[in-house]
Amino acid sequence: MARGGDIQEHPEYPHVIWDLEPDQKGKLPVAKGRGGPFNIAYEVHGHGPIKIVWVMGLGSLKANWQRQTKDFGHTQADKYSCLIFDNRGMGDSDKPRIRYSTSEMARDAIELLDHVGWTESRSVHVVGISMGGMIGQELGLLIPDRIASLNLISTAPYIFNTVGYVENLRHRINLIIPKSIDQQLSNVKKNCYTLKWLAEPDECEYVKEPFPTNGDRFAAMEVMKRNHPEWFTRVGFLLQLIAAGWHHKTPEQLKELGDKIGRERILVVHGTIDGMISFPHGEKLLEYLGGEESGITKRFIEGQSHVMPIERRKEFNSWIEAMVEKTEKLNKA
């Protein structure tokens, strides 16, 4: 795999963030009376009747959903409308120096849903990964009647293995400290992806030519983010880290979530070798929600790590499509 410094010389590097024209975009002032107002940057891709909001995780950009944005919001634009946004502290959104929490970030998202008019009963499919899945849990408790399906990917009810979590995130923090970028990228790869997939040839669409490996494409995206300090700041990242680290939902709260959403509308996905949020977190989340026998759809994937929407793109998309089809039928029943 190419070194971090060399990856910028690759012909595909300028195109690592795809040129996907949104149907709608803007910046919405949110959180008036909650430490704001400050702006949340968002895009809507597609114009179909089925509405999906994609909630990104710690330290990541809305562009990290670009595979799903393309597959749902462009290839199937007549069927789906996809809302993506940068959480507070990241990307094109503002980075206020206030205390962040997953519940406050969920309220940011609700204001955004209100703004784009996604307010009808059982009309919104929520897909949240990692910290985004924690925000998804908060959304489920705050606006359960508006949620058609709740898809919780590589996430946790709370971080109960604090030492391991902090050790893993130390590598993320290193991404914005001027040390060896190659070592930093290596650490994040180890925690978020499987080594086999990283070493395989670049499987993505390309403009000029493919990167040598999937790992090189990942590295290019991280380097691109690092080269835009207005997107990815130390303060913004650490404030998001506080939100994720302090997220805590009790068994009683998650039982309430299952009751309010309806367990047949919930998907829990986790990899057994997840190096960022370890597999027992997924097991506990499923247990507290009511277990597979209660009607929750479980996807526990043997030998899989943290970022399945990228590493298992087609399979992951099929899981979301299956949940959409199932719950849209429930809406009509």
TrEMBL record:
It comes from the Eukaryota. Residues 63-277 form the AB hydrolase-1 domain. InterPro entries: AB_hydrolase, AB_hydrolase_1, AB_hydrolase_fold. PANTHER family: AB HYDROLASE-1 DOMAIN-CONTAINING PROTEIN (PTHR43433:SF5), HYDROLASE, ALPHA/BETA FOLD FAMILY PROTEIN (PTHR43433). This is Alpha/beta-hydrolase. It comes from Rhizodiscina lignyota.
